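Course assignment 3, question 2. Fill in each field.
Student: A.L.
Task: Predict the tertiary structure for the chain below.
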Amino acid sequence: MESKKFLLQEKDIPTAWYNIVADMKNKPLPPLNPKTKEPLNPEDLYPLFAKELVHQEVNQTDPWIEIPEEVREMYKIWRPTPLVRAYGLEKALDTPAHIYFKNESVSPVGSHKLNSAIPQAYFCKKEGVTNITTETGAGQWGASMAMAAKHFGLELAVYMVKVSYNQKPYRRSMMQTFGAEVVASPSMSTRAGRDIITKHPNYQGSLGTAISEAVELAMQTPNCKYVLGSVLNHVMLHQTVIGLEAEKQMEMAGEYPDVVIACFGGGSNFSGIAFPFLRHKLTLGKDIRIVAAEPASCPKLTRGQFQYDFGDEAGYTPLLPMFTLGHNFAPANIHAGGLRYHGAGSIVSQLKKDGLMDAVDIQQLETFQAATLFAQSEGIIPAPESSHAIAAAIREAEQAKLEGKPRTILFNLSGHGLIDMAAYDQYLAGDLTNYEVTDADVEKNLSEIEKIIK
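Answer field:
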């Protein structure tokens, strides 16, 4: 009987995170001070982030960064996660392709986000921080941070994008169960929130807005730091436990992926599975394709511009080099709330610029169609975010069938959809639509940002 799942032991949990920047020929451009346009010093970031996280953020020389023992102990709650051969999906598609998925949905909060929440809370606690703030889109990051904060005895305030706050009430309940305070963003509790509500009273929020509010609160609260669930280098670093485990598991399966796929919002789960395999391309010259699957309604990698831009709407963050749609971009209210972000992380943006990875954009209805087929053939209801990766994997499998050639596909199932059933209700009732971003919209937003990269 052939193996369905490939399982590692707790002793196989990685002992170090992989820092891809050390192996990149072209390093990401530095973040800039918005006023002076000069590169930031690490010290400039100390007021906002825990110092150890800043050091990880700027480290360009060490390919391996040790995972603290206390963090590895907590990882044991759900890691290592299974690698699964999707025989059911292969059969449903009648494809010669072999499809594997790394199942990150088995974590206590149902997604990959806990991989970074735990170390971020750990380093804050170690520094003597008592309060932390963050933002969340779909609520996966907020729930992860709430669990990690409670474990390390930290007080947490979460700004949750208003549309998701209303669409996903049970994610809000999860955060509150873990003891976090949850505020719908934009809110009246910060200047950034009040300014946005004054201009747009019915605005349903974006991750950029929620980041502005969380950063503002962190700067005004004594002994408080800000934590972020995607985009930044140290978040990508922590997530590499996914791909490092998958490397060993693909060896157990006796295969090597031709293509590695993950959904894409700011880059956390994508980097997590892709960077360890990209290492083989960068250091060994391996022929492997890496594909980021993003929503057609928020297409920064496929239709954005590589430019310095703010990570938030109010312009509180440093200027980051990124593929961006402009920090004023207001994404459509799709159910994949975790992917509604205007920019890509600076590492991923550099890799895309250098042609080391590809990106595809996928319409909302195609993602739910893929999700439903996956649920029916594999028995797991996926998060709307992860369904973008499934849709891209199905495209690859269908291409393999068309060519009559086998190919090995690996994708990251970054979360389950058990708290997203309201979205499935709408899909099944025929009430969901596709959202098209016009070239004029993209051009207008991009025209509003200063062109620092000529």
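Instructor remarks: The chain has a mean pLDDT of 95. The CA atoms of residues 219 and 448 lie 27 Å apart.
Grade: pending
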